[in-house]
Amino acid sequence: MKTLNKALITSMLSMGLASGAAAYTIDDGTDAAPGTDQYIGAGTTTGNDVFGAASAFEVFGMNVSNDMNYLYVDVDTNFDDVGSSYDFGDLFISVDGWNPFGSSPYANDDASNGETWEFAVDISSLLGGSANLLNLVGASAPVLSSDLFASGIRVGQEVLAAGDATVAGSASAAITGNTGDNSVLTNLSFQIALADLGLDALNPQEIGLRWTMTCANDITEGSYTVPEPGTLALLGLGLIGLSLRKRAKA
């Protein structure tokens, strides 16, 4: 009976996390309709969420979820690299929480005072649906928008991992909608092994996430807990139900 109960609990753990992986949205919103998780960041002369034309640079946010094995991140943006002077930036990940400078919407946060990132998915390495996951610990500081461009950008914002970062694994990645038409939403999707990040789906951990293009004219940044609290609640209810059923039979 103990073996059977252990098997049932293990199965419920797996099913609970797999079925409970509904996406949590880090909602950046727009200047006209700020999202609940809007991140502005420092480095502009306007203080707006988007520096420049929203039709070209708006980042609406990220949908984030996980199952037993993977972290999933989807970014939605108006930005399109086709015909642009700018490129897609890397996806930055912090695995020890999220600590931006100041308070929401973090209008004074930049690379000098904000979160220190441990990992990044190197978008420039994307080939055949796969990109390098880089370990940033011990590497040089990330590349800033102002390292790449002199004007027309949000300055002092990290956009790419440093060239001396080491490869920690491989992430599935894809970019769709970048057709040269800004009226078509661009989506960047990532699938990253939790083990490569040093994360365990059974041990809750807040992580930080960040994405922007290389000019940083709009940034989405926020936190997510692996696993989601809702997933743990569903799992807890299931285990309580299993316990009550066992007592009733006794």
From TrEMBL:
InterPro entries tied to this protein: Ice-binding_C
Pfam families reported in the protein's UniProt record: PEP-CTERM (PF07589)
Protein name as it appears in the record: PEP-CTERM sorting domain-containing protein
Start and end residues of each Ice-binding protein C-terminal domain: 225-247
Signal peptide boundaries: 1-23
Species assigned in the record: Marinobacter maroccanus
Superkingdom field: Bacteria
Keywords from the UniProt entry: Signal
